[in-house]
Amino acid sequence: MGTLANNAPPMRIGVDLGGTKIAALALDGAGVERLRLRVPTPASDYDGTVRAVSGLVAEIERRLGATGTVGIGIPGVMSPATGLVKNANSVCLIGRPLDQDLEAALGRPVRIANDANCFALSEATDGAAQGAGVVFGIILGTGVGAGAVVHGRVLVGANAIAGEWGHNPLPWPEAAELPGRTCYCGKHGCIESFLSGPGLAADHAAGATAAREGACDAAEIAARAAAGDTRAEASLERYERRLAKALATILNVLDPDVVVVGGGLSNLARLYVRVPQLWGAYAFSDALATRFVPARFGDDSGVRGAAWLWPPPTRN
Hints:
The protein is of the alpha/beta class. Helices cover 34% and strands 19% of the residues. The protein starts with 11 loop residues before the first strand and ends in a 9-residue tail after the last helix. The relative contact order is 0.15.
């Protein structure tokens, strides 16, 4: 296996450790993808997961004939207090020294970050928010995640919980929204329980005629609204108002230049018109210049952001 020569472009390897699949790719110094591989995530098997990640890295380096830095996005974080994984929805990772075990398997340092932070970093580096000073990236999908990047650096925080926006309560709730559905975290009324895909579907299904309509996901609700279904339109309007409120608190605290959206609900094109029309009623400002845009790299942002966790290697 070769090594990176001083005059060769640096290679970064990113790994996105998901609940059902592990994706890995290599980027050259210009951010151009060189190779991509993926394998199923070993179910509930921590040791198998470590072997799968190290195997993907080894195979990429074998095929490209070069070594690279390794960054890994995980559905959780490394606790600064214990050095172990916490807040992971892949429960086999919880309480494990994942960074140490991967460094031992790979024989080099690794950088690990929350997958939403990786998403935000990807879009801030060469995606839809490229060049922006402060970027807030949100993922609206099965759950709700977020990450912040300030002048090119991921904002992690003293407790490694920066960006856990989805587990704050929905702000300015209406009477019908209280106390809110129970979130998996054990609290009621979390932003995630309203703004996730399942949250939107549950809200739409709450009407008296829902049993006759059958279950609807976000895409179906949007299609029905576009076709003139007034009930679907009302569901989307509630969703947009809730999203605007939830993001207004971020504007008040972080004041980002750009909010970038990923996840399945990022495909709802009307959000990018409606939400900026609504959030001004809640943000503490006379005018708002913040851009609200869909992710450039979509589902690829997580694995690309993991690769970008490392800065360019120093050259002689």
